[in-house]
Design brief:
Growth Hormone, Chain: A; mainly alpha; about 0% strand; 19 helices
Amino acid sequence: MTSPRRRGPTGFTGFTIIWIGQFFSLLGTGMTQFAITIWAYELTGTATALAFVGFFGFAPIVLFSPLAGAIVDRVSRKVVMAASDIAAGLSTAALLILHVTGHLQLWHLFVTGFLAGAFGSFQFPAYSAAISTMMDKKHYARASGMLGLAESASGIIAPMLAGGLLLLIGLRGIFLLDLAALAVAIGALLIVFIPEPERGRQTEAKPSLWQDCLFGFRYIFASRSLLGLQLVFLAINFVSTFGFIVLAPMVLARTGTDKLALGAVQMALGVGGVAGGALMAAWGGFKRRVHGVLLGMAFGGLFGLAVLGVGRGLVVWWIGAFAVSFAIPILNGSNQAIWQTKIPPAMQGRVFATRRMIAQISGPIAMLAAGPLADRVFEPLMQSGSRTANAFSHLVGSGPGAGMGLMFVFAGLLSMAVGLGGYAFPAIRNVDSLIPDHDEVAKPAPAGAEAAE
């Protein structure tokens, strides 16, 4: 490690302190996202506007991931995580000032979302790599389950709080609470000790930043198993985002802009995620973690996304939302454990950032496509009275929101096909055994090499 002295809690205790801080941060972020979703929909009444808000917040996370990974492996991961949180706070502060002065417009959400996403691209590789140096590998899946649990628990509370507090303190009050929650997260991060990985004693010239940006691509593309796993996530992220991006407008359209109904559906997402995260934290997942990945995708697609699409009221929406969120901590936790176990800690920043870019680059494309397709194709189709519309109306009903429901059904069936289809490829279904754990390799393999394949 770079420093033998411990200046604060570390190990699972240190991780738990960070986890508590992140819960408050996620709670504040969730409240803000709920509030600006309602604000943007009431302003425009279209799915395209909400899709564009999502796009500008998510696209930079993908775009800047290789640079983020290179920097994470060069500097203190604790500093990177704190800087990312501070940048998110500055974006929220900007929205607060614009709202207080009466100048807040839709395009401001695009700009601040882009800036927050750009700095947020550093958070995932830094956080993931930090976990690997703080605890034993047997706790990786549980730690990932706890992170999923925090996301989901905040997903339960945030919509309820935001829906009620919007009437009492308004949008500016929500922004202030988000900033306060972020301060708690930064404070928790500052008091813990995060060990830095052993980066080795290099006698040759240190790689340039550009070479480090490309390192993750070389490493992953040299492995059929790692690349195949990421291509599965590339596909699942496209089809699931295609559905999820229209969740809010679908519910609002089918309920006459009922904020409480949308909050209830989002709360169900949180409840399902809490259940899945708690199960993952207690259980640790399948021994062959690839089963958690592929079966989780199939389950979430069929019993989650597809059910959300056929639902026409809160009861069915609750079931679908619970099911899809229940699967997410299991599949993500299992996937995270695979990578944390197989990739040496000193490389994880670069490899994890590239891994994220490959898996999620399809997300922004789906966001750009889903909104216009909902407004101009699927919604008009289901209102047209055509033979095709009548055939699908038996499945998703009719009226406003039916077209977006059909998008969810397609997304669910395709998600199931992607998950089960992964078993058709030996390099993917045998990833647990084909690649040795990094701590079992006596001599580090050359960059990008996969000794067991």
